[in-house]
Amino acid sequence: MEDANVSIRDVRCGLDGTMFLTDTGALLACGSNANNKLGLNNRQGFLMQMKNLLNKDPVKVTTTPTAVKALSRYRVVDMALGPTHSAVLVEPGHVHTFGSNQDGQLGSGNTKPRDAPASVKQLEDQTVTVVLKKLF
User: How far apart are CA 36 and CA 75, in angstroms?
Assistant: First the structure.
């Protein structure tokens, strides 16, 4: 972790990964990033997507808590970590999902893979207050 003054407010553990929520609403993750389920490979925005196309070495495993940079512009308030995907609640109550979408588990209305955390569009007119706090 880059800033030793940051306090960890919450922790979620999955089968082979862990997510840490800081007191400032930043999300950190470590462990297996298979299917980008920790959100560590990609950042949002056109320029970052172009940079990611050239990245030949996606993050597969990280052994130290690493910032989920794709969510850095949001204040994360809750998260859930499953075996192949994750869901994150950001202020003001929107859900972002990432990881495997083989069975439509990201809530995108299809089974196409996502290359970065993305808002669940069908819930954007709702205010979500919590995501499931146990293994999917």
Answer: 20
Predicted confidence at residue 136, as pLDDT, reads 45
Residue 54 is inside which H or E element, if any? helix 46-54
45: CB partners within 8 A, 6+ apart: none
Cβ atoms of residues 31 and 84 within 8 Å = no
Q: How far is CA 136 from CA 79, 83, 105, 131, in A?
A: 12, 7, 10, 10
**Which of these, 124, 136, 42, 19, lies nearest to 83 by C-alpha position?**
136
pLDDT digits (tens, 9 = 90+) for 101-122: 999 999 999 999 887 899 999 9
Q: Are 22 and 7 in contact (CB under 8 A)?
A: yes
